[in-house]
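Structure first, sequence second, as always.
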């Protein structure tokens, strides 16, 4: 028996890697200093894993930015145009990660995409016609040797060839199959070199296997692995999967000449059933039993019960996915022990694996007893009033009346907005000043009155500016908010906030998701003060601005003792109360953002409705179902990748939706038309994710393209997301162009 993990957090206990790397970016330290600091951090992390009793320790799970980008460098999937620049290897690496503009050239950053159903983003490599796949990198070897010098014989990790091909981009004219032989040869070279250095095993991460696979994709997988495993160069090969089960390839997988297979028993709904159908005696099952995504203690009894039903002879206990997705340690939090005892971050999860392993080997009775006790006592009391409120909900609570078509008429009459009404998504630039004032207020250096006066003045300025420029529906600007989830969480019961619970999101950036500890209710009105203030300053409608229940849930660490659906309903009721208060305060247009709705769509199409949309969409409807017909509900989503779920989006029954469409060339418009989308739409007319100001005529052109697909009576004109990360100058310039383009388009209707 033994234990392992799939990967460990990289940023460091106190995000040291982030701060050191940022110093390097600011040229305050040299590349050598950065590399030395990273080396120290790796040593520290390996030693922690070792001291916690983990027996198989991975290496090369570290990254200066992203493991997928590391793999691209390992296999030479780096554009020739970048390789030819006079940049060091590290400079090339960061150039592709973040872009480079300087005297040595101009490199655009590679795109970033969400890593499966997590909030981590990976860099998407691009295979070009000129790409010559070969072994080109050395990081995996260096880090193996580095650990070896510390007396730790690690199992190097690298993205597997199937996932690497599936998740990369391809230039027109080349396809996955073109690179199979080159990749197989390069991976085998990696095997050979590692074997030569003394490694005995390698871990190939293949999370792409947990998705629905077509016949062609399965064939690609088998083709790659039949070739690759024909010569393992003496290494034992572990194919590691996570984020779900491998039902489409399980039988193929167990028949391949691999030595270990890593399966996810936490998120993999069918994993146990698959394994119970038979697992080969000559292979090792890496059983992912400790949740790598959540922050709660493992329930040992439940885990042991699952493991007892696993027929495999050789089992290594591991996490369900890399620990990259949880914070570092609970040791630096100052929650009281009664709370803290329920949390396990990365370091504590190592101890859980060790405990479970010991218990299975007839030891660890004490640990088991303590764990049983933890789960035997009630962690948090239920809010009886809230539960009664939820139990009393009926279909009618999820249905807004009158139906949309009738409301649309009523609202056109009530608001008398011009055709193609203009608006923005909510936030205006969070300038240095805005952030400094907020910080000073939090530190107590600024009184409530002073802070409020600052916010009021800022809102006044922007309301005036929006009126002058000619916007039809205004916003207050969200200057009082730090983050669209934390701001609400701080005003909800049942929420906890960690001090150091950072999780890597992209590059060196971390997010600190709040923790849902207990039943959620609204403690007090949250947004009414500033929304009604802003409305009092103008005769134009000002949109109230809320975060929706699904997004609040998806960007928090959820409870495990009640379902995600139930937690979402609780949040929905809290936000519903806020909606009704805003309405009562005279705010007639209310936007409920669901920026993260698309992100947690299950990886398998067959799970989309049953596991998610069937409760997520009604939860949103619950929030706004009882507003008056002439209160207009808007929503906003950050991705336009909802082409496949357009009827579900219409089912939110919002009156208006705005979304990010400018970067996807408005492709989604065809689908909206095909599906007869009813909700009024504002497909963002310019990309706010770049400081670039649209050229003259650009927005006009986009509006024309929209009007070709969507009836003009349904079209709104807005940017594609909130403007808080932008500078004031580019924001104003772009928005003036937007309003003028809308006015111009109106005249041609
Ligand atoms: N209303 C929010 C804003 O404008 C929406 C943010 C988002 O979509 N991520 O900032
Ligand atoms: Zn957005």
């Amino acid at each position: 028996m033994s234990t392992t993990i799939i990967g460990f957090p990289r940023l460091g206990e106190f995000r040291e890697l982030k701060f050191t790397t940022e110093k390097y970016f600011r040229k305050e330290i040299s590349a050598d200093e950065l590399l030395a600091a990273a080396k120290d951090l790796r040593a520290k992390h390996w030693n922690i894993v070792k001291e916690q009793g983990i027996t198989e320790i991975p290496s090369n799970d570290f990254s200066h930015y992203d493991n997928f980008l590391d793999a691209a460098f390992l296999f030479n999937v780096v554009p020739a145009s970048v390789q030819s620049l006079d940049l060091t290897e590290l400079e090339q690496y960061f150039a592709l990660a973040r872009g480079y503009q300087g005297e040595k050239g101009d490199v655009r950053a590679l795109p970033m995409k969400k890593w499966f159903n997590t909030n981590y983003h990976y860099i998407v490599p691009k295979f070009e016609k000129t790409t010559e796949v070969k072994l080109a990198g050395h990081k995996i070897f260096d880090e193996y040797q580095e650990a070896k010098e510390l007396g730790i014989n690690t199992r190097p990790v690298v993205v597997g060839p199937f996932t690497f091909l599936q998740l990369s981009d391809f230039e027109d004219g080349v396809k996955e199959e073109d690179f199979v032989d080159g990749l197989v040869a390069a991976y085998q070279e990696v095997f050979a070199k590692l074997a030569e250095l003394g490694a005995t095993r390698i871990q190939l991460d293949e999370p792409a296997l947990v998705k629905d696979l077509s016949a062609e994709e399965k064939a690609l997988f088998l083709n790659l692995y039949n070739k690759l495993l024909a010569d393992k160069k003496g290494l034992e090969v572990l194919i590691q999967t996570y984020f779900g089960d491998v039902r489409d390839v399980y039988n193929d997988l167990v028949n391949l000449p691999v030595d270990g297979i890593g399966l996810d028993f936490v998120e993999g709904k069918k994993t146990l059933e698959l394994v119970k159908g038979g697992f080969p005696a000559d292979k090792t099952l890496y059983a992912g039993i400790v949740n790598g995504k959540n922050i709660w203690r493992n329930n040992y009894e439940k885990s042991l019960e699952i493991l007892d039903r696993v027929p495999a002879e050789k089992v290594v206990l591991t996490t369900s996915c890399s620990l990259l997705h949880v914070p570092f340690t609970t040791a630096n939090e100052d929650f009281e022990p009664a709370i803290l005892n329920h949390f396990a971050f990365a370091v504590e999860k190592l101890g859980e694996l060790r405990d479970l392993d010991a218990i299975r080997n007839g030891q660890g009775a004490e640990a088991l007893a303590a764990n049983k006790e933890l789960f035997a006592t009630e962690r948090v009391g239920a809010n009886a009033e809230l539960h009664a409120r939820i139990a009393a909900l009926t279909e009618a609570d999820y249905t807004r009346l009158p139906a949309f078509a009738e409301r649309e008429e009523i609202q056109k009459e009530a608001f008398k907005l011009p055709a193609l009404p203009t608006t923005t998504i909510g936030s205006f630039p969070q300038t240095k000043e805005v952030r400094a004032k907020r910080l000073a207020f939090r530190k107590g250096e600024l009184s409530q009155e002073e802070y409020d006066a600052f916010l009021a003045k800022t809102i006044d300025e922007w309301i005036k500016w929006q009126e002058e420029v000619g916007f039809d529906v205004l916003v207050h600007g969200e200057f009082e908010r730090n983050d669209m989830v934390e701001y609400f969480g701080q005003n909800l019961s049942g929420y906890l906030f960690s001090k150091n619970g950072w999780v890597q999101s992209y590059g060196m950036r971390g997010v600190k998701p709040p923790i849902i500890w207990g039943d959620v209710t609204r403690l007090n009105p949250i947004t009414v003060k500033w929304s009604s203030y802003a409305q009092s300053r103008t005769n134009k409608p000002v949109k109230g601005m809320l975060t929706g229940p699904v997004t609040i849930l998806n960007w928090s660490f959820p409870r495990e003792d009640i379902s995600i659906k139930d937690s979402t309903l609780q949040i929905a009721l809290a936000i519903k109360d806020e909606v009704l208060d805003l309405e009562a305060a005279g705010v007639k247009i209310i936007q409920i953002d669901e920026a993260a709705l698309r992100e947690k769509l299950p990886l398998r199409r067959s799970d989309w409705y049953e596991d998610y949309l069937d409760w997520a969409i009604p939860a949103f409807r619950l929030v706004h179902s009882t507003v008056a017909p002439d209160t207009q509900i808007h929503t906003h989503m950050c991705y336009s990748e909802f082409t496949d779920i357009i009827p579900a989006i219409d089912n939110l029954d919002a009156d208006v939706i705005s979304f990010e469409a400018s970067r996807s060339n408005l492709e989604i418009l065809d689908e909206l038309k095909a599906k007869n989308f009813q909700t009024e739409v504002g497909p963002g007319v310019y990309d706010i994710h770049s400081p670039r100001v649209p050229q003259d005529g650009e927005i006009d052109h986009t509006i024309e393209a929209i009007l070709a697909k969507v009836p003009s009576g349904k079209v709104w004109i807005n940017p594609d997301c909130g403007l808080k990360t932008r500078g004031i100058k580019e924001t104003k310039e772009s928005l003036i162009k937007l309003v003028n383009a809308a006015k111009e388009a109106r005249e041609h209707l």
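Margin note: Residues 153 and 199 are 7 Å apart (CA to CA).
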